[in-house]
Recover the amino acids of this structure.
């Protein structure tokens, strides 16, 4: 079973049923030559909270008005007491229900699970290596597979974060 520590989920903005306008900031980017809008987005303003007061488990909520999409990045901390189970096919509904309960945005979790795309995920898996980690990472780089993952330093060594897409169903 796939266990995710962090996930980016994208879905159509038409599935968004409500939004707390006071919590979002708008950013519009224009082409300097033509003046045409090429990006028009709203972001959950995470600067409203102090460090220890940020909404648990939310890394980003972005509403793209240009492409009519919603993108959320959540971590398994959104699961609260279920946090050790991480985000899985079995816990994703609870994660989305908990996000709804915070009141920043509202949507139908079942619909989002069925019709969303996961575009980024941090796959949590313990891998025991017989040699130095750097040797394995060097081999991955030599094979030219760096476009699907990135390597992040982690307290216990390295973490490999994958980019890709899949759907929950």
């Amino acid at each position: 079973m796939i266990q995710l520590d962090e996930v980016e989920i994208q879905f159509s903005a038409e599935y968004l049923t409500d939004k707390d306008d006071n919590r979002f900031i708008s950013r519009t980017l224009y082409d300097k030559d033509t003046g045409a809008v090429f990006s028009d987005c709203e972001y959950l303003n995470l600067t409203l909270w102090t460090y220890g007061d940020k909404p648990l488990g939310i890394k980003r909520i972005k509403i793209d008005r240009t492409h009519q999409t919603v993108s959320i990045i959540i971590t398994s901390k959104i699961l609260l007491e279920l946090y050790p189970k991480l985000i899985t096919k079995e816990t994703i509904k609870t994660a989305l229900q908990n996000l709804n309960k915070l009141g920043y945005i509202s949507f139908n979790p079942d619909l989002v699970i069925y019709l969303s795309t996961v575009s980024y995920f941090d796959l949590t898996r313990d891998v025991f290596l017989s040699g130095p980690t750097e040797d394995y990472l060097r081999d991955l780089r030599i094979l030219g597979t760096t476009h699907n993952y990135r390597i992040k330093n982690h307290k216990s060594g390295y973490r490999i974060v994958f980019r890709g897409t899949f759907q929950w169903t």
User: Anything to note?
Assistant: The radius of gyration is 18 Å. The chain has a mean pLDDT of 83.
